[in-house]
Amino acid sequence: MKNLVGAAILGQSGGPTSVINASAAGVFIEALKQPNITAVYGAKHGVKGILNEEFYDINKEDLKELELLKNTPSSMIGSVRYKLKPLKKDPSDYQRLLEVFRKYNIRYFFYNGGNDSMDTCNKISKFFKSEGYDCNVIGVPKTIDNDLFGTDHTPGYGSAAKYVATTLMELYHDATVYDTPMVTVVEVMGRNAGWLTAAAQLAVAKGQGPDLIYLPEVAFDYDEFYASVAEVVKRKGKAIVVVSEGIKDKDGKYVPEHYTSLSKDSFGHAQLGGTAQILADHIKEQLNVKVRAIEFSLLQRCAAHLASKNDVKEAYMAGVKAVRAAVKGSTDKMVGFERVSSNPYKIKYKLVSLAKAANTEKVVPAEWILPNGKGLTQEYVDYALPLIQGDDKAPLVDGLPRFANLKKILVEKK
Amino acid sequence: MKNLVGAAILGQSGGPTSVINASAAGVFIEALKQPNITAVYGAKHGVKGILNEEFYDINKEDLKELELLKNTPSSMIGSVRYKLKPLKKDPSDYQRLLEVFRKYNIRYFFYNGGNDSMDTCNKISKFFKSEGYDCNVIGVPKTIDNDLFGTDHTPGYGSAAKYVATTLMELYHDATVYDTPMVTVVEVMGRNAGWLTAAAQLAVAKGQGPDLIYLPEVAFDYDEFYASVAEVVKRKGKAIVVVSEGIKDKDGKYVPEHYTSLSKDSFGHAQLGGTAQILADHIKEQLNVKVRAIEFSLLQRCAAHLASKNDVKEAYMAGVKAVRAAVKGSTDKMVGFERVSSNPYKIKYKLVSLAKAANTEKVVPAEWILPNGKGLTQEYVDYALPLIQGDDKAPLVDGLPRFANLKKILVEKK
């Protein structure tokens, strides 16, 4: 545990959320207060910005605008999907990072992201240590997928879950408006973990939700699916079905793989999408009913106007706690949440080892999935409800959100 | 002008909006107060409900739930797309309607809808008159398309426009988050009138909007389109393009017509959709960049959580004014808005002849479209901004909207 004096840098990584900037606000505002932190930087496009020596000078920003970051969606300083190669295979990125850290005397590194980003954090931290360079590295969790290990939930999940539940309740009213048969298939993000799709159950709990929910945790069976949809249509005249983009059959094949070969993104994950449309087309063919496929797409991860107040607060505090922990000498940790109680809702902030958080996906527990695989239990509802409480959004100007407007002045290259 | 004593019925027709139920609340709550109105009915699925003698007894509903209708999206009593045949061709529907109206002594008929619904209203009113049956018929305007003639704007437009502008601002932040080239194509509803697509300009006015906007009012030129997108990508690295689902080339061909033959809905309109995806696929092919197609789909017409306060208020008042006008003896009219001033925003309620409102589509005036056809002028922004002002949404319970919950007790058939 070392009390270091030097600059601090924050990087944002992976897919944005409604509250990743709230964590940035927490890191920036807290870091600016710390006497041991001599300068505060924001890496332009995460680790890429460090490699390129491109960082914004946060000391030059107005505090008022940094405060507005709390309600500004997405990644204000730019995100990145960049996977460091294994050190043994190619040490050049690691060496370059160390060179930049030394040059600017960066002693605090905060990285805000999901599994892959925690892995990046961990690798960098290990390398610095092996080279004898003191730098406290703290991960700040973030992902709408809620699949990070070592924390009760992740910032970003509550707001995305609130979007999914609210929008499904609204769609429930819209999709049942005519007296003609109709099937609506809604596709929710989530590659391997069905947490976000599970939020559909919150609408079901209000009696205004979908009829069927399909998570990636349960092997997808086409025959069962079409039969279930047919049964609902026969009984109610219409059906609303929510599917995760990541549903796959017992052999691990995704829905779009029946039709097209999949391209891969730079982390090696399959690029999904189109699942709802494909299923809707097949329902139309089989049942001869009107269908509509709706993909929540990027909307579910950037709808800051529907952010949960608890989520915004926790995202901000995760950033604050990261800085405080680092300044006190912690390193190689990720900020996590421990749930003390659900009713009343109470959490404790804690530090989790990066190694533990990195690259382990936390899926929806089997005991929270209904025996028929098509919905969630009350335990899930009790778990999720506190996370979507309260409203907290940007002030309105002309009826539209007033998002943060940073100057984004790049630090002069040394 | 006759002061009639009898029952009143409201029908909801056409595509739902966030505030069509606010107009229902206005009609119901005001009608319940009127001594000349002996019973208040809500037709189940519009004119179909009248033909089938299926109406809800609004006198049996709780006032508190009727108040909650103001913030409940979609059509609570069920909507319909049903086009009456020309009287000369087939009088059976008209005769059946008259029979039902006589049987229940319905003397006030309110119909909430767009162009087609105003036409339905007008036809029924004319027929009743020719048969000597006294019934005051008042149309209540409604459409997210804002294409109704005889009114400054329509209830439903402001909230949908607010959804489009807010969501595009959020997408602006999300879609520009990586430093890799990317084109996002967003599809907005609007068959022939580009009013809703035009709302993208409100995001542009905030410096957080799309790069290109394509309205159905301007003949779509594929070469120009791909060249414009390429130019933006070259200049900025990414492009956000908003297209109306109704864009068509100089020969009137819609984008999906290049690929599939179109089916027709029961009003004879082409069923659109998929435009954004088709264009995105072609951009990918031509420019070799990552693309994403986003269709706002039903979300743009039922996102009551983003409703404009002005819109909710005006929708409600349109219902109230309809009842008051009918009770005073007006018939064959639609409630319309006349703009007194934009700053400060002030409107006057007026009555427009149904014949004038029916079947005439009001498109975006040519002088409000930029000379290059890819955006809107400040005049449009000045026109639209007052319509999206203020928030007004359902109270939250468990962090989710508490929508109206009607008993929906059907009137016993006579």
Automatic annotation (TrEMBL), chains A, B:
Primary localisation category: cytoplasm
Top-level taxon: Bacteria
Domain Phosphofructokinase: 11-325
Cellular component, GO annotation: cytoplasm
Active site (catalytic residues): D145 (proton acceptor)
Site label Important for catalytic activity and substrate specificity, positions: D116
One GO BP annotation of this record: fructose 6-phosphate metabolic process
Protein task: Catalyzes the phosphorylation of D-fructose 6-phosphate, the first committing step of glycolysis. Uses inorganic phosphate (PPi) as phosphoryl donor instead of ATP like common ATP-dependent phosphofructokinases (ATP-PFKs), which renders the reaction reversible, and can thus function both in glycolysis and gluconeogenesis. Consistently, PPi-PFK can replace the enzymes of both the forward (ATP-PFK) and reverse (fructose-bisphosphatase (FBPase)) reactions.
Oligomeric and partner information: Homodimer.
Stated name of the protein: Pyrophosphate--fructose 6-phosphate 1-phosphotransferase
Organism expressing this protein natively: Acholeplasma brassicae
